[in-house]
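Form 7-S
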Amino acid sequence: MAKNTATRSGSAKTNEETAMLPATETSMERMFTYECTECSSRIEAAHRPPMCESCGGEMQNISISREQ
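Output:
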């Protein structure tokens, strides 16, 4: 039996259609804090930035504790 979606407004989707939609990149990604090894500038991002936006230095993930 087909569901009648004609009474729904606009482009409403059934539960089955919604379950098949891809998740957005940011909805499920964990954010990490990165700190520049040169100027100590910090940013939050899901992936390691290639370089510091302020000075061009190397970015280090400080969200994960490291043994010394």
